[in-house]
């Protein structure tokens, strides 16, 4: 598996990332969602460079223009709920794509929120056989929900190509997925890779709870 870290490059993505993380700016929910969307748009553009293209002739009012168009049948997969605005960014770019959804939530062994696992409940996906699957999961903490989300999707067909996308990943999550998918040609795209996970499996410095920041608190 190949890992791409946008934070290693001097691009506008770093500005979107800093706004997501900034404890004052992130209070503006609409802006928080839009920044996740914008990172999705840039990642989608970068992924478009890896697709398979063929030459097509386009009839204009004045003649014929020859152009390179991609052939990949794209499916955009997302993990509820924080994945939704990130997913929208990919869909803005690959607007003809099919879509797949899975719900994953953490369950805890005690009131102090010590995590024991991730539970998959809802799954809605088209046939994935031979498709180019792009999974949007903005916070890659342990890597568990990305792995389980992919496994859940794979019950509906084996994709030809897989792109795993996160806005912020932890070093531990990246190492876990790199080991788990070491014999694959998957690509993991990260807006940044942060050094730590705290006792509650939140990424540090991270940004907090992406789902709550995008959509408000939950019970
Ligand atoms: O830091 C984290 C980790 C997982 N999910 C989040 O929203 N934040």
TrEMBL record:
The keyword Glycosyltransferase applies. Residues 10-216 form the Phosphoribosyltransferase domain. CDD domains: PRTases_typeI. Coiled coil: none annotated. Keywords: Glycosyltransferase, Transferase. Gene3D superfamilies: 3.40.50.2020. The keyword Transferase applies. GO terms for molecular function: glycosyltransferase activity. NCBIfam families: PRK00129.1. This is Uracil phosphoribosyltransferase.
